[in-house]
Write a structure and sequence with these properties.
By secondary structure, this protein is mostly helical. It has five helices and no strands.
């Protein structure tokens, strides 16, 4: 990477990575806190407890995955483009070309594997955090 592009090549795809992180965090926060607020405070369908924390964790994993999957796919595609023999001018050019050639659902490739990887982490972390603090 260094010999072919120098310092700029080391940061290829950093923009989509930052966007992905923001989208992931937004989905996680909206999913967890939104579920807890909607079900316990606003509608009073569930009491604040372990069951609500588990449900909120699953919703958080779902939304974090749904929000960040397109940016994750874009980052991976843009970073791997030179090895694939494809040339993109920038991440937005990559986005436009993939959208035009393969359609919008392409950005959700690998979604289920990503979700299944995140669910155990969230289902462990959020309830444990709530119970201990």
């Amino acid at each position: 990477v260094w010999s072919e592009g120098g310092v700029p090549a080391l940061f290829r795809g950093a923009g989509p990575l930052v966007v992905r992180g923001g989208l992931f965090s937004a989905g996680q926060t909206l999913g967890y806190d939104g579920t807890k607020t909607a079900l316990s405070q606003r509608s009073q369908l569930m009491e604040d407890g372990p069951a609500l924390h588990l449900l909120g964790s699953v919703v958080a994993a779902f939304l974090a995955t749904a929000f960040s999957a397109p940016a994750d796919f874009l980052m991976t595609r843009y970073q791997a483009a030179p090895q694939m023999g494809v040339v993109y001018k920038n991440p937005m050019d990559c986005f436009a070309q993939v959208l035009k050639e393969q359609g919008p659902l392409t950005f959700y490739r690998g979604w289920s594997a990503f979700f299944l990887r995140i669910v155990p982490v969230f289902v462990t972390f959020h309830p444990l955090f709530e119970q201990l603090l």
